Amino acid sequence: MIDTKRRILLKGSLGAGAIGVAVGAGLLTPRAVLADWPAAAFKAEDQASALKDLLGSDAVEASDKVKIKAPDIAENGAVVPVTVEADVEGAKSISIIASGNNTPLIASFDLGENAIPFVSTRIKMAKTADVVAVVQTPDGLLSASKPVKVTIGGCGG
Q: Does the pTM exceed 0.85?
């Protein structure tokens, strides 16, 4: 038992040491490893700015092809379950916006070429507001929204 734990510790230490040597020698730079992300879009204080920074346009068209599922009343704004799906061909990305938050862009999911346009996650909402889903397609941006009432302890708010 102790021998197994010691072996795991030694293997982990060896791996961490090898990565440290590679970084120190300049063979592995964090810039080459870390993905680029649209910081300006996630720091934007309004929906239009966030969409322009993220997708290049804020011209969204409401569509019944985009379906958003969220609770009517969320008892805890810290964990609001949201599911978005779209019945469109060639969807490139799905973004989720909580319009009442100080920084409304919550998440953006880039989809692969043959991916089914479906995401499910939990978001944080500061107050009662609309949750907006924006699906990027080759023809433009499609959206749907759903009002979610955030309560404190289920007592109203």
A: no
| Closest listed residue to residue 118, CA positions, set 150, 94, 149, 142 | 94
pLDDT tens profile 114-147: 899 999 999 999 999 999 999 999 999 999 999 9
CA 137 to chain centre: 18
* Structure tokens, 42: 């996630």
Closest CA relative to residue 62, chosen from 142, 139, 118, 131: 142
Phi, psi of 139 (to 5 degrees): -90, -10
Which SS3 state, helix, strand or coil, does residue 13 take? helix
Taking CA atoms, 141 is separated from 88, 91, 107, in Å, by 11, 10, 16
